[in-house]
Specification:
Length: 148
């Protein structure tokens, strides 16, 4: 087992139509407005940006995100990641009653030396850290969607 490789899935029930959610999630440079753990998104060009995140644990993860797929009809946004995290992440937004369901899938290998050094004993803590970040992201997005 590669202790530095992670696979995550989160499901967010949201109070807005899929097209509205897609439009918000497509604008990654605005994530820091509603997702506290996304500290900075600096656009590099039309399809890539430099992202800095920090969840509960006291370290930043910095990576370049490159758009791989933007498909509003299918409700899919996918990026490739390179830096402290190498891999990919994908949002898939579908209708769910009066609102929508946003599914977040991510597969990454951690390259940050500190996390690699503590890969085995830190793995459960790193997973909880990710879960807390995703929970805060959902709360922030719900509040943002309700304010729009």
């Amino acid at each position: 087992m590669d202790w530095c490789r992670y696979r995550f899935r989160s499901l967010w029930s949201l109070p807005a139509k899929p097209a509205v959610v897609y439009d918000v999630l497509e604008r990654a440079e605005e994530y820091p407005r509603w997702w506290p753990q996304v500290r900075e998104v600096r656009r590099l060009d039309d399809t890539s940006g430099l992202i800095t995140i920090r969840a509960t644990l006291p370290y930043d993860l910095v990576f370049t995100a490159h758009a791989v797929r933007r498909d509003p009809e299918a409700g899919v946004l996918e990026i490739a990641m390179e830096g402290d995290l190498d891999g990919w992440a994908r949002w898939t937004i579908t209708a769910d009653g009066e609102g929508s369901l946003a599914r977040y899938d991510q597969e990454v290998t951690v390259r940050k030396p500190l996390m690699r050094r503590f890969a085995v004993p830190g793995r459960p803590v790193f997973r909880v850290n990710h879960r807390l970040m995703m929970r805060a992201g959902r709360r922030g997005l719900v509040a943002h969607l309700e304010a729009v």
